[in-house]
């Protein structure tokens, strides 16, 4: 006679066996499709794939499991949307990559909720009727869009929300719908966040951002040396930032990945190493770049200084470089600018001392 424990275990095994048999029958019922067949639906570029995963993924149409190890599935090459073969003809969600091709920008309002009534009590994605009083499951809100979705279109995926990062420096993952998940994944490395426009005060509140901004500003100065230096070109120094080309174009644009790595104390160390390598080339290794160094006109010390040195400061008008302490002892008055002003008053012509004669 079996014990209660044996009966419970047996019931579980029987239930699992029934599920596997149903799945096998479902696979047999699916239509045969040639491996080379591709489909274009609502902007998606679907291709058959078999990724060999031992664990099932979920279909973006019906939210049921997909065993791609056993049966090929359709996967969008652009956004990662995936579905069963049998679901390909009932796809309702447009490809988010098409939307980004038109305008790549984040929603910068924090969870801009409008209410379920304004959605006419329908899922914001598939438009199926939803209600907090219904039997089909409670609607789920997406923290990125602020809209409500059915449980087929919202799987409780979590992600860092760009608006919360920019406005509150908040990296807590929030629940988002499938459409937002695909969009945010695609946007992770897009250079679309201008902190100077969106929240310039963040540079004062977050020390890591302040330090990184200073390093980036220095790198922009160093770039001018490298552009005219054949040795820097041969060494491909600017290629050290090829995974972040926006770092040699400006100092205020970021990707979400940049900001996340700033929060994790990873970005500063990485950029600091690049900064150190660049400085070493200009100050020590390269005679061409060293020749462009400055002697502080205020103290006449023999050491060369450069505009990216911590101890140095460049005049905002003429770009002459001085020791920071010397410059402020003179109340921020640039002697080169004074001379140029006197020349202008006497001759009526402005001379640039840095120009070749």
| Count of distinct strands | 14
What is the string of SSEs from the N terminus onward? HEEEEEEHEEEHEHEHHHHEHHHEEHH
**Which range does the strand content fall in?**
5-15%
Strand order of the largest sheet: 1-2-5-6
Q: Assign a percent range to the helix content.
A: 25-40%
Question: Are there runs of 5+ residues with pLDDT below 50, and where?
Answer: none
Shape: elongated
State the helix count.
Answer: 13
Structural class: alpha+beta
Largest sheet: number of strands, sense, barrel closure: 4 strands, antiparallel
Query: How many structural domains?
Result: 4
Cα distance spanning the termini: 109 Å
Average of pLDDT: 88
Rounded radius of gyration (Å): 30 Å
Which key phrases capture this entry?
single chain, 357 residues, alpha+beta, Wheat Germ Agglutinin (Isolectin 2), domain 1, Herpes Virus-1, 4 domains, four-stranded antiparallel sheet, two-stranded antiparallel ribbon, 14 strands, elongated
Q: Layout of helices and strands, plus pairs?
A:
Elements: H1 4-29, E1 38-41, E2 44-49, E3 57-58, E4 65-66, E5 73-76, E6 82-83, H2 96-102, E7 140-141, E8 148-149, E9 157-159, H3 162-168, E10 174-176, H4 178-187, E11 193-194, H5 195-198, H6 202-205, H7 207-227, H8 230-235, E12 253-254, H9 256-263, H10 267-285, H11 287-290, E13 312-314, E14 321-323, H12 324-329, H13 335-347
Antiparallel strand pairs: 1-2, 2-5, 3-4, 5-6, 7-8, 9-10, 11-12, 13-14
Helix pairs in contact: 7-10
């Amino acid at each position: 006679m079996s014990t209660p424990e044996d009966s419970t275990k047996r019931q579980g095994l029987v239930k699992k066996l029934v599920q596997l048999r149903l799945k096998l029958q479902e696979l047999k019922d699916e239509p045969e499709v040639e491996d080379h067949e591709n489909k274009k639906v609502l902007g998606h570029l679907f291709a058959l794939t078999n990724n060999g995963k031992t664990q099932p993924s979920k279909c973006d149409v019906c939210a049921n499991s997909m065993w791609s190890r056993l049966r090929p599935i359709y996967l969008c090459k652009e956004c990662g949307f995936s579905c069963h073969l049998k679901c390909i003809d009932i796809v309702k969600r447009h490809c988010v990559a098409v939307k980004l091709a038109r305008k790549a920008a984040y929603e910068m309002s924090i969870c801009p909720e409008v209410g379920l009534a304004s959605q006419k009590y329908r899922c914001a994605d598939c438009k199926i009727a939803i209600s907090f009083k219904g039997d089909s499951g409670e609607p789920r809100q997406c923290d990125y869009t602020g809209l409500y979705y059915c449980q087929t279109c919202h799987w409780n995926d979590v992600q860092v929300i760009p608006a919360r990062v920019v406005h509150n420096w908040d990296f807590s993952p929030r629940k988002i719908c499938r459409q937002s998940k695909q969009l945010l994944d695609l946007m992770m490395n897009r250079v679309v966040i201008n902190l100077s426009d969106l929240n310039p005060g963040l540079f004062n509140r977050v020390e890591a951002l302040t330090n990184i901004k200073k390093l980036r500003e220095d790198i922009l100065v160093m770039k001018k040396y490298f552009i005219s230096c054949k040795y820097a070109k041969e060494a491909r120094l600017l290629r050290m930032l090829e995974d972040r080309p926006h770092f040699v174009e400006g100092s205020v644009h970021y990707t979400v990945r940049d900001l996340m790595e700033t929060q994790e104390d990873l970005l500063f160390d990485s950029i600091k190493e690049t900064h150190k390598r660049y400085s070493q080339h200009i100050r020590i290794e390269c005679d061409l770049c060293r020749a462009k160094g400055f002697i502080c006109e205020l103290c006449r010390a023999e050491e060369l200084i450069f505009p990216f040195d911590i101890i140095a400061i460049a005049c905002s008008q003429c770009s002459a470089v001085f020791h920071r302490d010397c410059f402020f002892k003179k109340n921020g008055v640039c002697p080169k600018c004074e001379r140029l002003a006197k020349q202008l008053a006497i001759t009526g012509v402005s001379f640039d001392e840095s120009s070749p004669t």
